[in-house]
Write a structure and sequence with these properties.
There is one protein chain. The chain is 33% helix and 23% strand. The radius of gyration is 33 Å and the shape is globular. The protein folds into five domains: 125 residues, Rossmann fold (3-Layer(aba) Sandwich); 156 residues, Topoisomerase I, domain 2; 125 residues, Topoisomerase I, domain 3; 126 residues, Topoisomerase I, domain 4; 39 residues, no CATH class. The chain has a six-stranded antiparallel β-barrel with strand order 8-9-15-14-11-16. The protein is built from 17 helices and 29 strands.
Amino acid sequence: MPATKKASTGKKTKKKTTRKVKKNLVIVESPSKAKTIQKYLGSRYKVMASLGHIRDLPKSKMGIDIENEYEPHYISIRGKGDVIKELRKEAKKANHVYLASDPDREGEAIAWHLSYLLGLDANDKNRVVFNEITKDTVKNAFKNPRSINMDLVDAQQARRVLDRLVGYSISPILWAKIKKGLSAGRVQSIALNLIIKREEEIKKFVPEEYWTIDAQFKKGRTKFNAEFYGKNGKKLKLNNNDDVQKIVSQIDKNKPFDVDNVVKKARKRQPPLPFTTSTMQQVANNSLKFKTSKTMMVAQQLYEGVNIGKGGAVGLITYMRTDSTRISALAKHEASKYIHDEYGAEYAAIKPRTGKLPEGAQDAHEAIRPSSVLRTPASLKKYLTPDQMKLYSLIWSRFVASQMTPAVYDTVRVDLSQNGVNYRANGSQLKFAGFTKVYQDNAKKDNKLPELSTGDQVNMVNNQPNQHFTLPPARYTEATLIRTLESNGVGRPSTYAPTLNTIQKRYYVKLVARKFEPTELGQIVNEMIKECFPDILNIDFTADLEDQLDDIEEGKRQWVKVVDQFYKPFEKELNAASEKIEKVKIKDEPAGFNCEICGAPMVIKMGRYGKFYACSRFPECRNTKAITKEIGVQCPKCHKGQILERKSKKNRIFYGCSNYPDCDFVSWDMPVGRNCPKDGHYLVYKKSRKGRQVICPNGDYEEPIEK
């Protein structure tokens, strides 16, 4: 049967149409930052990542048109084609495009390059900046977008052009006269020169002898320590043992010492300022043993956002590239309330310390601080990696301490004498913890003295002369080198980590026991730059150039004129250098044995990752061997080979079997040569601040620390 048709009602039914609402496109640098911001902005926004820079100067050539006002020739970065294509596609569909790269010169330049590639008007209000990635801060930033700040862009462009002119002009001379693959730069050349100068000071240093006399005294049953001070109330330096014996001979062991003077004071110890980029790098290097590059990588993760459970991803710290110690009023108020509630009103500073800005500092951002002081390290422990936890704890405690009252110590100085010989004892005791309740930085232990008054007498228990020699200046660590560069006005917060990384990568210096030592190659390069380009190594000249870049950022100077004033005299030095410098041949050091393949002598060559053995007939014979050192321990795995000390590509020491690749034993810790008495696993040495300790990596067995 045919289907029966329904009777028509005469009314037309309207089709329901859904209108697609255009979204706003937000572009940031990294996927983790995009993920955090997407959560705050909601479904009306689409947040995408440019994955860093998308346009830059070409690597294959200088890319600067010197004759045409130093115009840079930018190109799209290789490998970013798909990213650019996707961003253009989304930008066309978007209701509005916002550029939310980092709030500094480099971030402004990234926004400008994005604006160019996406065909946006640089004068449009499409630039969004925020100092911390939290919900309220991000939402408020989108209510107040601005146009791209071309002064910031020009300052970054001037730095890029200057560095390119120096690097791509000097590097070819280094390749021609020394060896291929070398490079030179403004800040890295000064860093290298500082390290070499320090090495020269150490070599020239002549130690001087001096002596001290430590003594122990007793009042009643209480003993305390004092040091020799001088004679007849005047300080005296003991230069040799004869000086010491003259003093010792004057002391009557059977006669007590008189207490001549007791000075009691209350000493305040001021809290530290919150972190800037350089102080964070220095403290992380000293206390956490973090390399500068690692500190910045972990700080970037904390800034961009970490998933903290139900709350989702949130930025835990403010922007980590800053030279300011300024704190916002809101953050101060939150910290003050937290300190009141947690420690009491007496611990909260009424007027927290404010640091003086160093010369050349921009004060564009706040200091590095937690985005909320209420997110204590303890509350975040289960969400953070060990490295994130260490750095966040450091930043959090430093910030909280900066908002607290000073620590107060009761100090006492006691002057003792007998027969014109003076000793002095110093004691201190913590009276009020203040900021040390939260942050301990080189805090001294209490040294209590017995209650003494002028006119009392005490007996000497023992007297110990000690010979000493003055020490040479210490080699630079990453922390002390950054401090020196900053104090001289060389470089800015964003430049320190890449500078230190470059001089190690080029093998101009090496880190030995966390201290910089120059290599032969570094000394050769430094000598050539010193001879031909003295301005590059002139700290005052480079610091002045940094100030001029800051002036460009503030709109006080025009970037082309700054570059031109630098390049004109530099060009003359360049032309003279090519003719002046003779080719330097780095002599290969004999290895002391012959090649097992062809019988020719083996030599020690300098490579990208340090020294290695190579056949002297290279390139006819390409035999190479890693430089290794036996530690006198048999392999615990194959029991045939010897354990060798080797170095990884990152110059980190590890231990492997001499029978590699037949035996794949490898360990970061040095094997001891004994097995664990509990489970038979091989034992290793584990280093710590107090010394090294024998432990079992497979269990809980450990032996006392060897100092």
